[in-house]
Amino acid sequence: MLLPAKAEVARQLRRYRAWERAMLAAPADHTVRATFEDAGYTLCVLMGKRCAREAADAAERYLRITLAAYLREQDERPHLSATRRGPPRSRRWRFLAGR
């Protein structure tokens, strides 16, 4: 797993928090909202999360603890895996003519 530099994470987290405050101060301003969403998206990509709030939480944890502890924490979380659809692979289907 590749992890970003802590300095870059800190910079992007500060940017996200600043635009969050600006967006809360002026929720009707479309430019501020778009920039806030862009900052959230950047943080999501940087931290490998799907939600900006989760990415901000992950960034704060990453900056607060050691690299080894962060990796251990990530390994302990349950991972969703894609489930295979269809019949089990061990089962062999035979199509017999006339039966």
Description of the molecule:
The chain has 99 residues and is mainly alpha-helical. The protein is 62% helix and 0% strand. It is built from four helices and no strands. It has helices at 6-25, 30-47, 52-64, 67-76. The longest helix is centred in the first third of the chain and has 20 residues, at 6-25.
Provide a short characterization of the protein structure:
With 99 residues, the chain is mainly alpha-helical.
Top keywords for this entry?
4 helices; 99 residues; mainly alpha
Structural class: mainly alpha
The total count of helices amounts to 4
Intertermini distance: 53 Å
Overall pLDDT metric: 83
- Order of H and E elements: HHHH
Instruction: Give the C-alpha Rg.
Output: 22 Å
Oligomeric assembly: single chain
Proportion of beta-strand residues:
under 5%
Kindly state the number of beta strands.
0
The coarse overall form would be elongated
What order do the helices and strands come in, and which of them pair?
Layout: H1 6-25, H2 30-47, H3 52-64, H4 67-76
